[in-house]
Design a protein that fits this description.
By secondary structure, the protein is an all-beta fold. The chain has one domain: TolB, C-terminal domain (Neuraminidase). The chain is built from no helices and 13 strands. A hairpin with a 5-residue loop joins β6 and β7.
Length: about 140
């Protein structure tokens, strides 16, 4: 099985790297580079490891193919008109993803269609972490409040 490393950041780039064995050890070699027009704050990989979802400053979730670095989907990650997406988390079944926005909202989105199935407010500060439970029945969120 190939080892792959995918990274993104405020420089608006996504780097896809693959591990290669050399005589002096394991090296990560860049295989693809995507330059976006917006800052990228977070990412998560789906259960199949075929797709990576990226939370973007422009409130969109962009989904890329992990093997070729090509964008597969782009959909709204927040229903509001202000703020930036800060976190994204794909549920263990690969059916839904959750996003948190700097407007303090949380959205649950169908991973395949991009349809928002739930939107929640409740934290008085931004959400700094979130995770679906293994049975996919609960979403746990963490905030500075």
């Amino acid at each position: 099985r190939d080892i792959q490393m995918i990274s993104c950041g405020a420089d608006k780039s996504i780097y896809f790297r693959s591990a290669q064995q050399a005589s002096d050890g394991l090296h990560f070699v860049r295989t693809h580079h995507v330059a976006e027009k917006t800052t990228l704050y977070d990412m998560d990989i789906d259960i199949t490891q075929k797709y990576v979802a990226v939370a973007c400053q422009d409130r969109n979730v962009r989904v890329y193919n992990t093997m070729n670095g090509k964008q597969k989907k782009c959909y709204k990650g927040s229903q509001g008109d202000e703020g930036s997406l800060l976190k994204v988390h794909v549920d263990p079944s690969g059916t839904f993803l959750a996003t948190s926005c700097s407007d303090k909202s949380i959205s649950v989105i169908d991973f395949y269609s991009g349809e928002c199935v739930a939107k929640m407010f409740g934290h008085s500060e931004i959400v700094t972490g979130m995770k679906f439970t293994y049975d996919c029945r609960h979403l746990i969120t963490v905030s500075g409040d």
